[in-house]
Amino acid sequence: MKHYREQNVLEAAKERISGVFDSFEKIICSFSGGKDSTVMLHLVADEARKRNRKVAVMLIDFEAQYKLTSDHAKAMFEEYEDCIELYWICLPMILRNAASNFEPRWICWDEDSKEAWVRELPKNAIHDELFFPFFRRGMEFEEFIIFFADWYSRGVNTAVFVGIRADESLNRYRTVASPTFLRQKEMWEGKPYTTKVTDTSYNVYPIYDWKTSDIWVYHKLFPNKRHNEIYDLMHQAGVPPSQQRLCQPYGDDQRRGLWLYHILEPNTWYKVVSRVNGANGMALYVNDSGNITGYDRITKPEGHTWKSFCQLLLSTMPKKSRDHFLQRFRTFIRGWRGRGYVDDIPDEAPRVLENAHWAPSYRRLCKVILRNDYWCKGLGLTQPKSEAYARYLAFKAGVPFEEITEEFVMQNENQPIREQKVYTTTIQEKKTGKTRIVRTTDRKKAENAFFASDPWKEIAATDAIKPKVPKQREPKSESLFA
User: Within 10 Å of residue 145's Cβ, how many Cβ atoms?
Assistant: First the structure.
């Protein structure tokens, strides 16, 4: 529940930033060129000038980005050059490519692919892999920022400003506002908008309670403060403010904005779609539905069951991707064996149960493949903790960086995967006849919601909560899932 105060979000953000300057010897401002980090840098730089202090500004550049974003970053750094220490980082880091099963990951600023780079290296960018003692080629972004904070702090209390907002996603809300998560994390002086990262550094989220509209109200109040003009073009292209985001364009969610490059920056467009495998096809079809992308309803070829269609799709994949999906599928099927499906899962189930994750089926597996859902989130599985996370845990536990061996990483990278226990359904109220969606992690509450609804949904609920072994079973045969 939100608790509103007399103080507006701008005053609250300034107060938080001022408190950090009072208490921390070193300060890092994380900057991406997006609307949130831009406003945050304006506020942090204003406070730094007032105190005649310098702050480190860290921009991790993922190469595949709008030219206007790069131009905006350059202009911001020139405007505040008197109060910032710049780290414009263009190092070969590994990133997700959701546009292809043949190249599921790619490396930005890779010297081996220099002729295909989307942009030229910015002036004064850090591209030397030996610049940071902790860096290694193919490092992940999440890993880099932790080690950067520790390297920069050199044992001194350091604050890292991060421009995330709670209303952007459930994950971000959990980080800064979820009571359950707040009880688990370490904070600076009990401030919920902070998170302890290493022994000497804290992440600080000064604009966590801002809405998207607050960002643009700020620019209306202070028209002389720069903003990234790519957002003006997005607005003209009809993109709603809540969907106007900047990130590397090939991620699982970000790929749906690939088509925008064609409209907003045609000169960047052809470089973006030729940079990684599958990008051009993804840009053409990502907003379609059906078998092309796996969104909404899918169909199977004539003469196929969903199981045989799933095997056909797997057989067309490169071995590495096929083995990855098979491992995830086996985990999924094993989980349902303990819930009544002893021999096998059904070919299909009622769509309302499949969509709510209340019943397994081979149709769900097909949908995951067609969507190129690499971590199988559509099956309720979670992304395993990465190699980067294993290194972070070791580092946080006090293991020196040079002692974090590959053997240690191998022992810690495989984390248990389980089905998310989130129950979702649409019910119809008897009195009003209105339908509403119920989402809950409380099993009993989900049962009660169903039982208070129409009789047919009561039956569906019973089947979902206590799955029964299907009466008609497919004859046993050799299978990829054995």
Answer: 21
